[in-house]
Design goal:
alpha+beta
Length: about 70
């Protein structure tokens, strides 16, 4: 199942993240232990960012699949 977050803060990462934009999460348990989250950023690659910069957005499985198809 796909997980998504919305970016609340992009200070220091303006080229990589846009505020109020939805980003797909890549599961990374090791990063989570350190307060980090791995998301697919504006480059299309996944990178680590502070988890505090994001808010998880629960989407139904159907909507999540539709979002993935258009990105």
């Amino acid at each position: 199942m796909h997980k998504f977050v919305v970016c609340l803060e992009n200070t220091g990462y303006q080229a990589s993240l846009e505020q109020r934009k939805l980003y797909e999460v890549v599961t990374d348990p090791e990063a989570a232990k350190h307060g980090q989250i791995r998301v697919i950023d504006e480059s299309g690659d996944d990178y680590l960012f502070p988890k505090s910069m994001f808010l998880e957005v629960p989407l139904s499985e159907d909507i999540a699949e539709r979002v993935v198809r258009v990105t």
